[in-house]
Design brief:
Layout (H helix, E strand, L loop, with lengths): L1 H5 L4 H10 L3 H5 L1 E7 L4 E3 L3 E3 L5 E5 L7 H10 L9 E6 L3 H9 L3 E7 L7 E2 L12 E6 L9 H11 E8 L12 E2 L6 H8 L6 E2 L4 H7 L3 E5 L7 H6 L8 E5 L1
Parallel strand pairs: 5-6, 5-8, 6-7, 8-9
Antiparallel strand pairs: 1-2, 3-4, 9-13, 10-11, 12-13
Length: 250
């Protein structure tokens, strides 16, 4: 009976319970079917999540991570991110990462955003209040699709990155589109949701996203990290097979 009742709780309330009622969901869903690599714990079930259409079994009860967060974590494990002293800038920090990155002894970790309560610095990504060549690593995930002048934002990220630095700039990417679809005249929230997938998105990125990054000055590598994993691991971590990680370099 309790299990059936819990499964009827609306998604926003489930997230609130997990954020403020921990370890309620973390403990309740413990099991052996799926593993969240971010906290190393296993669960019998991951929860549904989606803005317009629910995706079943993608939200970790423990960290609130989604597929892209867990993929990024696994990729970072293969880099120097957790090993070398690094100055890190994280734009719009994700809940799944924020406290963990803050505690990393090798990281000088700074967060920035216009609205996020997790941000150390209130900043406009198109006009960052940082000196040139300041950061070894920049993380900016699912932000650029919100920014009308995304090229200006990319150039700012390039400016504040140190020579030899690197970053990960994830966006919702539709590989079926050769060219990014955007239309500044579309301002109605409902129409933006229909066309761009979310009311506050201003475009849908296509295959030319990587060329946009190059226009800003970056060298770009499109990494399919799921190629390094077995099908069993992809399912156990609840990842999207073939999802690309855009890694940029200066």
């Amino acid at each position: 009976m309790f299990k059936k009742l819990l499964n009827t709780i609306p998604r926003p309330l489930l997230i609130k319970l997990s954020q403020y009622g921990k370890p309620f969901l973390d403990i309740f869903y413990r099991g052996n079917k799926y593993t969240d690599p971010i906290n190393g714990k296993s669960y019998r079930r991951f929860l549904p999540y989606g803005y317009v259409q629910l995706r079943p079994g993608v939200l970790s009860p423990g960290t609130l991570s989604l597929e892209r967060h867990r993929l990024l974590w696994l990729y970072l494990q293969q880099t120097n991110f957790f090993k070398t002293p690094l100055n890190v800038l994280h734009i719009a920090p994700e809940q799944a990462f924020y406290k963990r990155f803050k505690k990393q002894p090798n990281l000088s970790y700074l967060t920035a955003d216009l609205q996020s309560p997790l941000a150390d610095v209130k900043a406009d990504i198109t006009n960052l209040p940082f000196d040139d060549n300041s950061f070894d690593v920049i993380l900016c995930n699912h932000v650029l699709e919100h920014i009308p002048d995304d090229l200006k934002a990319m150039k700012e990220l390039y400016r504040v990155m140190k020579p030899g630095g690197w970053g990960i700039l994830q966006v919702p990417l539709d590989n079926k589109l050769k060219e990014t679809f955007e239309d500044d005249s579309i301002t109605d929230p409902a129409e933006r949701t229909r066309l761009f997938g979310q009311y506050d998105h201003v475009r849908v990125y296509g295959q030319d996203y990587f060329e946009r990054l190059k226009q800003a000055g970056f060298k770009v590598k499109a990494v399919d990290f799921t190629k390094n994993l077995t099908q069993e691991e992809i399912e156990r971590y609840r990842l999207v097979k073939g999802e690309i990680i855009p890694v940029v370099y200066k």
